[in-house]
């Protein structure tokens, strides 16, 4: 796994051994950040269920002012901290060890990336419920192509879906009444 573009382009990132985490594939991460590029400069980016931290680190590499990486697995947190340290971006990345339920409401961000384990649908419901109450300017949810997500969770509306193989990215914004 590597950083795709930006300041840390081509730098290698450590992965969590085993199958506990499911890193976002490089190709999907590249497509995501090609879409986000006009919005990423100077933003606060939150990566919930961060796994290796690759998505949040990619955001910083491409110009985000800072990234908040929330992960509850101690093994994954150690990998994230090592990846952040290896790039020298400790002041630009805040690694939070704990549950999304507890920490997601505590950290406001411009862009939120939500990527729970595919086999835990309750985590999707929980994350969308929390974010639907606060409606950040942009929320992206990575999910399996066969998984149904709501069109309008809380005060947000889905406005785009990107599918690559079995992976999907659903994009949500605050509901402003547009069709």
Structure description:
There is one protein chain. Strands 3-2-1-4-5-7-6 form a 7-stranded mixed sheet. The protein is of the alpha/beta class and 179 residues long. The longest helix has 15 residues, at 26-40. Helix 5 links the parallel strand 4 and strand 5 (138-144). 31% of the residues lie in helices and 25% in strands. The radius of gyration is 15 Å and the shape is globular. The protein has one domain: Vaccinia Virus protein VP39 (Rossmann fold).
Summarize the structure.
This protein is of the alpha/beta class. It has 5 helices and 7 strands; from the N terminus they run αβαβαβαβαβββ.
Count up the domains: 1
Instruction: Give the % helix.
Output: 25-40%
Distance between the termini: 39 Å
CATH topology category name = Rossmann fold
Q: Architecture, CATH level 2?
A: 3-Layer(aba) Sandwich
State the CATH class.
Alpha Beta
| Major beta-sheet overview | 7 strands, mixed
Determine the strand fraction and express it as a percent band: 15-25%
Name the CATH homologous superfamily: Vaccinia Virus protein VP39
Widest sheet: strand order?
3-2-1-4-5-7-6
SSE layout and pairings?
Layout: H1 26-40, E1 44-48, H2 54-61, E2 66-71, H3 74-87, E3 93-97, H4 100-103, E4 111-114, H5 121-134, E5 138-144, E6 156-164, E7 167-174
Parallel strand pairs: 1-2, 1-4, 2-3, 4-5
Antiparallel strand pairs: 5-7, 6-7
